[in-house]
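Form 12-C: Joint structure prediction
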Amino acid sequence: MPRAGVVGSTLPTIFRRYYVSGMTQALDRTNARWINETEQRLAEWLRVRGSVLVGFSGGVDSAYLACAAVDVLGAPNVLAVIGRSASYPDAQWATARSVARQFGVPILEIETSELADPRYAANPTNRCYFCKSELWSRLSPLAVERGLACVVDGTNADDLGDYRPGAQAAREQGIRSPLAELGFTKADIRALSRARGIPTWRQPSAPCLSSRIPYGTAVTSERLRQIERAEAALRSLGVAGDLRVRFHGDLARIELPPNDVAGWLVPDAAAKVRVAVIAAGFRRVAIDLRGFRSGSLNVLGGVVLDAPAGEASEAPAA
Amino acid sequence: MSIRSREDLESALRGLGLRCSVEAYDALAVVVPELGDRRLELEDIRRRAIELARAHGFSHLAVELREPEQPPDARATLPRG
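Section 2 - Result
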């Protein structure tokens, strides 16, 4: 089966147009046959391994993978491990535990200490490498100890095109990424999660809190808590969808869903935002006029090139 | 590649009719509007401001939410009596 080339992945519906063998066809992710065939590919991959340890954050991807693994292999052959640290939001932790409870996923929580690593805390552009090295170096021996055949993560096919230094750590530790290996995109995983009734299917992406701090600015527990408080306060004001509070010293720069920016600039709403974020520990508050951009600080840090509003940023040519 | 200039961006934004100053933090420009200036609530103005920021070398443009000025009669006064 040839891989299909995406020719219109920005369509805002669950339909996407693929160019396959010279013909254009619509992909309907609600189609039962597509769901069944796609899940069968994952099931076959998992059955070959027989048992897995899942790096489990409670995000869209790892939640789906853990639930599917339990369904295919049975709970005794699956262990989902949550690595807790200051960079892991409490809200995400609650989601992870809730999904595990609902779908019978066995979990184990361990404390990770990436902030104790000065190479991580200094916040270089490859910060994620040191975090993932810490995590996977803990999980690989655990899998051996528990007799689980391999360690897997929720990396998906879309992630492969992003700047992700953490992926190098995974490769070095022999971590497998079945969703990416099978070509599952984020949209695929959301649709498959929805079909299974996993509540994370419509959850915004939730990278670790350190991703709010510009490269070169030290990551500290205090700063992470400040960011977490600010984001929680904004959620309680009714901010929905993608949200990031970016740390710029005294200034919080808030990224909101682009279509919501105008509404939060209206004086009454803006005043509430300002009060909430200042109460979280910032002295000044600003709203980014372009709104949320995935990897925004990669652009600010010069890791990827800026792109005009409404277009994806690109990796630099060299 | 445009040369990043806070002063030029501030001047260009004033040319849009915005009453503001601009602060720069590397490739982030922060617009500090004068109190009462609400022009950035307009989509067209925001779009043009973003284009100007890019043209002047800034990948990010944000607007500071300023503390509203209290009207004179809302300021604390000593109770009489």
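Section 3 - Comments
The interface with chain B takes residues 248, 251, 253-254, 261-262, 265-267, 270-271, 273-274, 284-290, 296, 299-300, 302, 306, 308-309 of chain A (CB under 8 Å). Residues 1-24, 312-318 of chain A have pLDDT under 50 and may be disordered.
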